[in-house]
Amino acid sequence: MIFLKWISRIYLICILLFLYVPILVMIALSFNESQLYRIPIEWSTRWYEALASNSKLHSATLNSLTVALLSTCLSTLMGTAVALAFFRHDFRAKRLLQVMIFPPITIPWLIIGTAMLVFFFWVGIGRGLHAMILGHVALSLPYVVIVVSARLKSFDSALEDAAKSLGASYWQTTFWVTVPWLMPGIIAAALFAFAVSLDQFVISYFLAAPGFTTLPVEIYTAIRKGFTPEINAISTLVIFLSMLLLLGVSRFYRFGGRN
Amino acid sequence: MANVSVLNLSKNFGTTTALDRVSFQFEDGKFFALLGPSGSGKTTLLRMIAGFESPDQGSIHIGGKVVDHIPVEKRDIGMVFQNYALFPNMNVQANVGFGLRVRGISGSEMKRLVAEALELVRLSGFDNRQPDQLSGGQRQRVALARAIVTKPRVLLLDEPLSALDRTLRLEMEIELKRIQRDVGITTIFVTHDQEEALTMSDQIGILNEGQLVQHGSPVDIYENPQSVFVARFLGEANLLRGQADGKNVKLEIGGTVKTLSKPAYPQVICSIRPEKISIQKEQEVHRSNGNRVAGRVNEHIFNGTSLTYLVQCGNLVVKVFVQNLSGEVIPPNSSVHLFFRPEDTLVFPDA
Amino acid sequence: MNQRAAILSLITPAYLWLALTILLPLSAMLYYSFLSDVPIGNREVSWTTENYRTFFEKAFYSELMLRSFKLGAEVTSICLLLGFPCALALAKSIRGRTKEALFLLIILPFWSNALVRIFSWTMVLRGNGILEYSINWLLPGTGPLDLMFTYPAILLGLVHSYLPYMILTCYISIDAIDNQLLEAARSLGAGKLTILFRLIVPLALPGIVAGSFLIFIPVIGSFMEPRLLGGRNGTFIGTIIEDQFTAVFNWPLGAALSFIMMGLVLLILFGFSPLVRRLK
Hints:
- The structure holds 3 protein chains of 3 kinds.
- Chain A is mainly alpha-helical.
- Helices cover 76% and strands 0% of the residues of chain A.
- Chain B is an alpha+beta fold.
- Chain B has 2 domains: 4-230, 3-Layer(aba) Sandwich (Rossmann fold); 236-349, CATH 2.40.50.100.
- Chain B has helices spanning 42-50, 92-102, 107-120, 136-148, 166-183, 194-200, 218-223, 228-233; strands at residues 4-13, 16-26, 31-35, 57-62, 65-66, 77-80, 154-158, 186-191, 203-208, 211-216, 238-244, 249-251, 256-257, 267-272, 278-281, 291-302, 306-313, 316-323, 335-340, 346-349.
- In chain B, the strands form 4 sheets. In chain B, strands 6-7-8-3-9-10 form a 6-stranded mixed β-sheet, with helices on both faces. In chain B, strands 13-12-11-14-20 form a 5-stranded antiparallel β-sheet. Chain B has a 5-stranded antiparallel β-sheet with strand order 15-19-16-17-18, with no helix packed on it.
- In chain B, α2 runs parallel beside α4.
- The longest helix of chain B has 18 residues, at 166-183.
- Chain B starts with a strand and ends with a strand.
- By secondary structure, chain C is an all-alpha fold.
- Chain C has one domain: MetI-like fold.
- Chain C contains 12 helices and no strands.
- Chain C has helices at residues 3-32, 50-57, 59-92, 96-111, 114-125, 130-138, 151-175, 179-187, 192-220, 224-230, 237-246, 251-278.
- The longest helix of chain C has 34 residues, at 59-92.
- The two termini of chain C are 36 Å apart.
- Chain C: Its main location: membrane.
- Chain C: The chain crosses the membrane at residues 7-32, 71-90, 102-124, 149-174, 195-220, 253-276.
């Protein structure tokens, strides 16, 4: 049904402008010569050049990537396993366990982050790389389960039955039949988990150790201290990277449901 | 109630032609079936009458008035959709009462009318059920009650029986026909099922590739198809190629036959319905008048009341339906002769 | 293969992980919220309910809590008002390639870096920033707007952050509505408004409710957004809790405030539960 076709187009464009204009402004200002963001913009790439010699940002970037990579591997593995268990088996605690997967996205990150800080401190885990990986995996698990489960919805379990009837064991069936079929979903989930980890600020903020910060934490500290277009430059790179990742996800997973 | 007429309707979707200059009169109070293969334009025609699509050319009249610029919601139609489209957030009563409420009828008056409609479709007492608590057949009845409760001028049915299983479908065919007769509403029914069209309707219009190729009563269309397409689409037909000499047709599979009308073209196709052919073993042949073709029985399919023979005649397999009168079966590989009357031998030009 | 062993081997790693990172930390925090001090070194620590009492005794905290909930409600309502029509337009009036592309464009910022997006607003709102510059260019003499470090600035930033949530959840439930239902309503004589309020809104309610909670809950716990966009006006319960953990080092009070906040959220969820149950 054509529902007020033109009004809805114009409205959608306004919403898109609202969503994108600030980001575009930020990007434009990263190419501004003036340190004080003077307008009109004088074209310059000096802030990107400055990034090249900022060793603090370099190590923070490296840390971010390390945390993201490791937690992506772990959460994709564990999340896929959980999705498979929910898809294949019916068991008593299933409903409860399904609900239990969601707290990481339904409780404010502030509370989860501070709770982790308290607990990790208390039992001696402390802060830093290992603590952040613990936290990021928990955060991305629900997303992995959701994305892989969505792909599983269109899986014909007769394929598994067929494999079993041909003599394949439980794990042979899993690794030779189910997992290959699931691969697009698993790739989407992994990219998704990577994006979640890379963009995660709140948890990282509480679990960052003095010698170990991630890029978002470093950016936050810099903003609070008073910022320069250098922050715009690094932010521009970050936003391009995360949008690129999500475009990658969308190749494998339809966000609107209906796979 | 009102009659509906469409004049010269055409519609293109991109480069595909959905309807091509279709004109037709749907008379008041009659039951019409629009029959055609998928993509023939029958659903487009129905949706145009409803107002969901607008024609590129031509116009539509309901009750003698042009409705081309009247939106769906003001056309005063009733429509039953393929998957019923019952509102899942409303119970049966609210579903059936929806059209009344929109028209400002509520309270006890609405309840009375809804109860009447539900009684008509034999679902009294189902008022408080939710759509997902109903069986397929019940949903169908609710959808029908909802469509007729507002006493619309015309009832449009879009393949309403296609989602039902066979037994339920036969039952609903009878019900639908009864309700239509009781209410006396002009009804247009879209289907791709020829049996449905034949059993239910007063008039059938056959569409193919956007054109109305033939219309008339079921008997008329079945007995006098005007084209090979109609002969094959409505019922079954054996199609035999041949050459005409102005009087008789010399069939490719052997034999010369007389036809209903004089063949006016040199290359023709003869069409004979399987039930109009009689079959006799070669050694027992005792009839000589009418058309005759020789062949050999390939196999037979026995289904109780009747027998279907597949007879190899030259390079063609001819289908023959025989009533099970004697309980006798001609075994495979028997040589047989097939007989059919010239009146049952229709002739069409070979395109 | 034993079914039980299979299930256990599939789910145990994930749930152990969640226990270690969610369940145990929340329990530890609950424990801390009843302590008189952080148990470091040889400090004297005792059980107390003082942290909870502080909240009820000092109007300062409850006012801030109220302010946070008000912020949450406002952000959620604005997101609903802006997002629902957007989802409707996207789901029901645009088709094919354009629809997919527009949808992707709208949710793309959704998971992209939240911090960076808030930062981008400081670029727009700051004194002599783009907004003032362009408004003064359009209407000379408007003068400074002084939007930065105000409540509306926080509102703007949060709506920008969370709007895609609402669009996404509403879109999913509106898109699932069979077009035949809308056609059926029209064939029965219903106009656009009737269809909107009698059919689309009730059928999209699950999406509306889901979107509202997904926005409301994180917003009342937000601290980064108010700090960056609100400056001195950006004190909310979230920033106070953060202070207890990072600056003041009063973990027990921070823990108690967190639990009060979660308790209130649960109460609200509970209040909505008849509605949520009806949706099932």
